[in-house]
Amino acid sequence: MTVEPTGAPAPEHPAPPPSNPAGSPPDDVAALFARTRNGDRRALGRLLTYTEGGGPLADAVAASAWPLTGGAHVVGVTGAPGVGKSTLTDRLAQVAIDDGRRVAILAVDPSSPLTGGAILGDRVRMGSAAAAGGPFVRSMASRGQSGGLALAALGAVRLLDAAGHDQIFVETVGIGQVEVDIARTADTTIVAVSPGWGDAVQANKAGLLEMADIFVVNKADRAGAADARRDLEHMLDLGHHGDWRPPVVLAVATTGDGADELFKHVGEHRRHLRDHRSEGDRRARQVAEEMRRRLHRWVDVLVAQPSGRAAELFTEVAAGRLAPSLAARRLAGELGRADGAGAETGG
Amino acid sequence: MTGPAAGTAGPQAERHHDRHRRQPVRVVLAKLGLDGHDRGLKVVARMLRDAGLEVIYLGLRQTTESILLAVEQEDADVIGLSIHNGGHLTLAPRMVDAVRAAGLVVPVVVGGIVPDVDLERLAEAGVFAVLGPGASAAEVAETVRAAAAARRI
Amino acid sequence: MSLPDNPVPGGAESHDDEDSPRARAEAQWRAAFEAAPLRDGAFETMSGIPLAAVHGDPPYPGQFPYTRGIYPSMYRSRLWTMRLFAGMGTAADTNMRFKRLLEAGGTGLSTAFDMPTLMGRDSDHPWAVGEVGRAGVAVDTIADMEDLFAGIDLSGVSTSMTINGPANILMAMYIVTGERGGTERRRLSGTIQNDILKEYQAQKEYIFPPRPSVRLVTDLIRFTTAEMPRWHPVSISGYHIREAGSTAAQELAFTLANGFAYVEAATAAGLDVDDFAGRLSFFFNSHIDFFEEIGKYRAARRIWARWMRDRYGARHERSLQLRFHTQTAGVSLTAQQPEVNIARVATQALAAVLGGTQSLHTDSYDEALALPTEQAARIALRTQQVIAHETGAPSVADPLGGSAYVEWMTDEMERRATEVFDHLDKLGEGSILEGVYEGIANGYFTGEIADSAYRFEREVNAGRRIIVGVNAYTEGDDGDTPILYIDDDVEAQQLRRLAEVRRQRDAAAVTAALDTLAAEAADPTVNLMPPIIDCVRVEATEGEIVGALEGVFGTYTEPAVV
C-alpha cells in the first residue's frame, strides 16, 4: 500500500507518487482522511479497513467522518440469494453515475461460521466496478457478528458519505435479521424478488412489507413475473403503509431493462421523504437507533469481558459479598456518568 | 479487545500491522486475459476461505487495471494470480510492474503450472511466490499469509 | 483370420426355445453381425485361441439400449478413429501440417483455434496480446480460413472444428471457403463442437448470454439439417466439465442433460427429433479410475437411448445411438515426473476402448508443462496403436459386459445421473432445457463442479488419495523434460494479415452486412446463418460479427462464484 513508508520487498521499488508523500505515518487517521477527501481511493480503502476492524481506530475514523456526513442518499438492496442483487446494484450504480452522481457500493457477504474466512464474489457481477469512472466498491464480510456487522456497515456508509459519495448502495444477501438491521439504516430500501418466488405468506413472514420502500421483480423475462408483481400488489392492497405505497418494478438486471425506472423510483422516494419532512425524522430515528445499538454492543462487551470497575463488581458478586441486582444497578448508574471513549464499538 | 473502561488509546497506538492480528488477511484472486481455466482459482479460493482469509474473488478476464482498482478499494494485502495458459512469463511480470508503477507494495503470488526453468525468471521479475499444482492447502495459506506480512514491511 | 462359427459362445448349444427372447436377440444380433463388414485381422489370442465376437447375455452390442455398444461388430468392423488435434501459429503453418497429414493417408483434419478466436475476438483486440496463434490457429477473417485449407479438396476430407461461442461464424467461413474452392456446402463433411451450454458450466469460453447462444446453436442445427447432410452440428462435450473438476457421474449427467436441452431447443424451433438427433455426437473425458470410466460410457449409451425413445419420441435407430469421441484427462497429467504420464494415458485410453468409444485422442505426456513436442505427440499416437494392434482388446465387443462389478458400476452411474436429471427437470418445471438455464443462472453447475474439485484436492492434500510423483514416490524427478516454445513472430504476422484485409475490403459492404445481421438478430425467428455467411463473404472480421451480435444479445458474465 502507498502508505508504507519503509522498505519495499523489492529493492528496485520506485518512489511512491507525489500524492503519497513517503513518511506519512501509516495509521494517521487525520492524514488518511484528508487524502480521502481529495478522492484518494487507497486512503479510503484503508480507512474502511479501520472502520471494519472496530476499536479505537474505528472510533477515530467515525469521529472524523461524522461532521461531513448527511449528503448521501443511502439505498439498501436486499433479497434472497440468487435473485440477482449484485447485477441489479451494478445497473443502478451505472444509471446513477450517468445521472452525475458519485456512487459507492458496499457489498456485504457472510463469513464462514466455521473458519471466519469468506469468499466475497460480488465484484464478479459488477461489470462497472472494474471500469475506471465506475463506482467505489467495497466488499465486506460479516465476520460472524451480526450486531457488530450492522455497526461496521453503518460506519462504512458514514465514511463513504463523508468521502463525498452522494449515492450509496448497500447490498446484503438474504433476508435475515442482519439485513433488516442494515436496511433500517438506509434511507430507501429495495427488496428484490424473482418470478416464482412466491406467496404472500412467505413475504409477510420475512417482514418484507415493512422493510421495502420499493419492490423489484428481477428476471422479469421469465415466466411468472407478472404473477409475482400481482401478488405483491395484492399484499400491498391488504397491508397498510403510510403515505408511500411501495411501487413494484419489473427488471431484467442482466440486460439492464428496468434499471432506469427503478432509479426513478429511488429518486421519487427520496423526494417523498423530503417533501413529507420525513427525511429529517428518519435521520433522527437512524442516529437514535445507532446510539442504542452502540450502547447495547458496549454492554455486551462489558458483560462478556468485564474489566475495570465492572470486573470488580463481578468479583464481589461471585464472592457473595454483593447482591447481583444491586451490583447491576450500581454499574448501570456509573455507566450513565461514564466517559465511553475507547469503547469497543465495531467488530 | 479492550473493555469500555480501558482508557482512551489514541489512533496512533495501533500500528497498521497490528490489525492483522485481529482482522483476516484480504487477498484478491483473479485471472488475467482470455484464459478460462478457473478450476485452480476456485479451489484456492476455498482453501483460503477455510484457512480464515477473506478472498475478494474477481475471477476471469481481468486486466491489471481492474485488479489494481480492486486492491485499492478493498485494501487487499495480496494479489493471487492464476495462470494456466503458459503465459506466466508475460502476464506475471506485467502484473508486478503495474503494481510497482502504481506505487503499491502488494505482493503478487502466482498459481499454476510453471516449469522449473521459469521459476527464477519470475522471482527476478518480482513475483513473491509460485504455487504449483502440488501445493497443499496449508502451503497455499502459509504462502499468502507470508505475502501479506511482506506487504506490511 | 479366424472367425468362430458361433460368435456367441453357448448360443448354438443353448437349450432356449427358438422363440425365447434370448434366442431372438441372438438371431437378430447374428444377422446384423453377418451383414457388417469385417476388417482384416486375426480375431484370436496371441496363443492362437479363436475368439467369439461377443460373450455374455443379451441385449448384445448393437441392440437397444446399446449399453454394450452401438454396433454389433464393434471394432471388428472398424477400429476407433485415432484423432489428433492440430493447430498453432498462423493459418499457413497449420495448412502445411494438414497437407503432410493428408499425404500420410489421413482423411480427417482436426482444428484447434487460438484463444482470441475461441472467444470471438480479433487478433488485434487488447485481450489477444500474447495469445495469438499460441494454443491453436488464429482465424480473424475468411482470408485466414482460406489459407488454412488452401490446396485441400474439402469434398474429400472430414474436418473437425473445436469452437463454441463463435461456432456459427467459423462454420460460415468454412462454407464460404468450400464454395470458393468449388465444394458446395451439401458435400462438406465434418463436426463442429458448438456446445455452448458446457461453456457456462465449465470451460468459460462464452460470449453471449445462454438463451441467445442456444438460439445460435439451434440455428446451426436447423441450417445443417436443411443444407448440410454430412455435417455434425453439435458435439456435446463432457470433457471440459470433467477437466473443471466434476466427478464422473456429474460429467455424465451434465453432458447428457445438455444433450437433452439441445434436443428440446431444436424441436421447439420446429425440427422433428429424427431429422437431427442422428447427427448429434458426444465427447467424453477418460480419467484414471478405470472401471468408473467404463461404467460411465456404458451408462451414457443406455440413458441416451431410453430418453430419446421414451421422452423425446425418436423412432430412428440412429437417433437412439450415442456416438462419442474420447480424450484422455489432461488434468490427470502431472508436471512432476512427466514420463509417468505415458502410463496414465495408456490406462485411460484402454478404458475408452473397453467402453466402446468411436474415436480417441490421447494426450501427450508433456502437456502439463507446455504444448506437446512432436516426439511426445508421437508417443501418444503409438499408445493407441499398441492398444489397437497388440493387446487384443478390440477383438471382442464390450469384453467387460457381464462382469458383476462393471454392470453394477454402470447401474450406479445411471442412478446418480438420474438424480441430476430429476433435479433439473424440477428446476425447469418439466423442461430440461429450462432446468439447465436455471442451473447456470443459480450457480448449480459451477458450484457442484467446484465442490467436487475442492473435495478431490483436499483428499490429495490429506494423503487419502495418492498421486504418484506428486504426494508419494516423489524421488527421481529430474525436471529435464524438453519444452516447446512458440515463435513470437506469429502474432506480428497475423496482425499484418488482419490489417491488410481491413485495408483492402469494401468497408461500406461490411457495415451494411453487419447492420443487416444486427437487425435480423433482433428477430428470434430468423435463422442467422445466412446473414452471418453474408458478413463473412464481404470479409467482416470475427470480432466485428461478434460485436454486431453483442449489440443485440449482450455479453455474458458469470452470475455465481462458487
Describe it for me?
The complex is a heterotrimer of chains A (347), B (153) and C (562). Chain A folds into 3 domains: 1-11 and 23-68, no CATH class; 70-278, P-loop containing nucleotide triphosphate hydrolases (Rossmann fold, 3-Layer(aba) Sandwich); 282-335, no CATH class. Chain A is 48% helix and 12% strand. Chain A has 13 helices and 8 strands. In chain A, strands 4-2-5-1-6-7-8 form a 7-stranded parallel beta sheet, sandwiched between helices. In chain A, strand 7 (214-217), helix 9 and strand 8 form a beta-alpha-beta unit. In chain A, helix 5 (146-162) packs across helix 11. Chain A is globular, with a radius of gyration of 22 Å. The two termini of chain A are 23 Å apart. Chain B has one domain (24-149): Cobalamin-binding domain (Rossmann fold, 3-Layer(aba) Sandwich). Chain B has a 5-stranded parallel beta sheet with strand order 2-1-3-4-5, with helices on both faces. Chain B is globular. Chain B starts with 18 loop residues before the first helix and ends with a helix. Chain C has 3 domains: 1-65, no CATH class; 79-461, TIM Barrel (Alpha-Beta Barrel), CATH 3.20.20.240; 495-553, no CATH class. Helix content of chain C is 48%, strand content 7%. Chain C contains 21 helices and 9 strands. Chain C has helices spanning 21-35, 91-103, 115-118, 142-148, 167-180, 197-203, 210-227, 239-243, 248-268, 273-276, 290-311, 317-320, 341-354, 374-389, 404-427, 432-441, 444-461, 489-504, 507-521, 529-537, 542-553; strands at 81-82, 108-112, 158-162, 189-192, 231-232, 234-237, 280-286, 324-328, 359-361. A 5-stranded parallel beta sheet of chain C has the order 1-9-8-7-6. Chain C has a 4-stranded parallel beta sheet with strand order 2-3-4-5. In chain C, helix 2 (91-103) runs parallel beside helix 4, helix 5 crosses helix 20 and helix 11 packs across helix 15 (404-427). Chain C is globular. Chain C starts with 20 loop residues before the first helix and ends in a 9-residue tail after the last helix. The model of chain C is unreliable at 1-5 (pLDDT under 50). Chain B binds chain C through residues 33-39, 42-43, 45-47, 57, 59-61, 85-87, 90-91, 113, 115-117, 132-134, 136-138, and chain C through 115-116, 118-119, 121, 127-131, 134-135, 203-205, 243-245, 331, 334-336, 368-371, 449-450, 453-454, 457-458, 461, 470-471, 479, 483, 558, 561-562.
